[in-house]
Design a protein that fits this description.
Blueprint (H helix, E strand, L loop, with lengths): L1 H5 L10 E3 L12 E5 L6 H8 L4 E5 L6 E9 L2 E7 L11 H12 L4 E7 L3 H13 L4 E6 L1 H6 L3 E2 L1 H8 L3 E3 L8 H14 L18 H13 L8 H9 L3 H11 L2 H14 L5 H17 L3 E2 L8 H10 L1 H51 L3 H7 L5 H30 L1 H8 L1 H5 L8 H7 L3 H7 L6 H14 L3 H11 L3 H25 L19 H36 L1 H15 L6 H10 L1 H11 L5 H13 L4 H11 L1 H28 L5
Parallel strand pairs: 1-3, 2-5, 2-6, 6-7, 7-9
Antiparallel strand pairs: 3-4, 4-5, 8-10
Helix pairs in contact: 4-12, 8-9, 8-11, 13-14, 14-16, 14-22, 16-22, 16-24, 19-20, 20-29, 21-23, 21-29, 21-30, 22-27, 22-28, 23-28, 25-26, 26-27, 27-28, 28-30, 29-30
Length: 680
Amino acid sequence: MQDALMNPSKAQETSSASCHGGLQSDTTGLPLIAIVGSPNVGKSVLFNTLTGAYVTVSNYPGTTVEVSRGKGRLADMQVGVVDTPGMYRLIPLTDEERVARDILLQERPAATLHVVDIKNLERMLPMTLQLIEAGLPVILVGNLMDEAERLGVTIDTSTLEQALGIPVVPTALALGRGASQLKKILASYLHDCPNCSSATPNPKKLVLYPTMIETAIQQIEALMYGSYQMTKRAIALLLLQKDNGVGELVARQEGGRAEDIQMIVEATQERFNQPLTYLIARQQRESARQILNNVLFLPNKRPNGFAERLSKAMITPLTGIPLLLMALFLLYQFVGVLGAQTLVDFLENAVFGIYINPWIDQLLATYIPWQAVRDLIGGQYGIVTLGIRYAIAIILPIVGTFFLAFSIIEDSGYLPRLASLIDRIFKKIGLNGRAVIPMVLGFGCDTMATIVTRTLETRRERILSTLLLSLAIPCSAQLGVMIAMLAGRPDLLGIWALIMTGIFMLVGLLAAKLMPGEQPTFYMELPPLRLPTLTNVFVKTYTRMEWYFREVFPLFIIASLVIWLGRLTGLFDVIVNGLEPIVRWLGLPDQAAVAFLFGFFRRDYGAAGLYDLRTSMTGIQILVSTVTMTLFVPCVAQFSVTLKERGWKTALAMEAFIFPFAFLVGGLLNWLLITLGVQL
């Protein structure tokens, strides 16, 4: 799942994606290729290379972890491909690792492609040894060869193949290097090994554990009579490491013998002062190190080129913060100025204002005699003149420029470095640097970001991050409209940014104090810094734009329809009249009540309503309205995901806090500015 952190909405692997249930509906009956490996090693690129146009993304049964599947063709053979969530080892620590392990354990992959960062092979090879030990049909894909060569790292792949007893394919998948060779080897592998979906009974023994652990493994194996997709040795090792999922599987398979097995596990642990998990992992690392002694050759002095110096500068606070501010300034210029001002002004005023809206109103007046129907399509709140205008003229250019900019940032490798930079700050609010990923993704889409909070380690972190996303992180469309409203007023933009940052930190700090739990740990792979490739950037941007038109655009139409029905029945006016006293308390014109009503459907819809009023508001009113709307309740889609991810009690508690809090902050801000006699 952590690949999804770097690729929100699984952009690379879900071009032309269809989201539905039926996890294996697209690959049933086909030889299955499982792609495994830690995050940021190129699994998604390999998935794209192997799959066709039709890809399914669905939750793994019994979990909220998404798994991508697709079909591909190797020579004359059609195959299924599954991109497993990121994993570092077979013994799972997170839901994502557990799902990846369960796919290997239960689904009989005909080939398992272990993708590794070749220059960090010493750290990643222990998992390869575990996959071999499990009797899985493994091919080692040594990716990022271009980075290794640039750093002076050399790999003797032939010797490594002999040592491991499996194919080893060097690749630089982002550049297309090694992809055709991998496909040939994979096709030959599947053709020559029709029974590879069954575990190899006696795989090459590459790791020898301390004598007492080896004895325990043999004793457990002797008691196992069930049928497993991994070797009994691998199952025994997982049992010794207290893998609950495997423990339940063995209990079902072995019946009464499972109690005897558990006694062996407990007796073995009592003989050691350290956890068996640590001892087993240490031996795997040592075995990997011995194998690589004659295979991996590192330069005496690691190159210290521009990319390495820039990478270090990005994670050092003294230089990292100015670089972050520079990145935010460039993002503002691209999204806030080009997207939210230039493109929005052209589309709204020139295209819709001069041509489309007048033409629609004239057409309706000429051919449609019924006022209700004319109001549905045109007029002030019509589907075309309001809904489509908001979606195309105001939101689309902002979302489009943001998605393009975000794809560039994402492909550059900057996000993990940003996570490292602000880890210390996030720990103050009960999170760690890893949480910066959903927070940054929230500026694209809070709904997607809420889903990505699954990758955080503890329930406490997931709740805290979901609360902060719902309260203080505006999505790209809403953020763009806010920036457009504040455009040309750097004083208002600065005050708005300070207020939102202060609220984010204050609420996070108080929530962390009130919620019990341990301080989260932080560990993240740093992918290489690289110039983004145009193909990847455009594919990601196109996929996200496709998502916008498929998922978001229809909501503007639906919102216009609901507003039309509300006005037709009089309910719209009743709600607006009820909101007007609150709006007046905020010091805003009565018309702003309509914008906040829009905000119940989508925050960006409400923000666009405020944008329509910007020319009639003072500086204080613009500031108060943008702060209040930013803090306002999340959109229906985000609330639905929060309901699913966190449960109805937590979701409703968040809503009950956010709604009054937004208006309280807005009202107090208005009162404070007026009392102090501030002129904006």
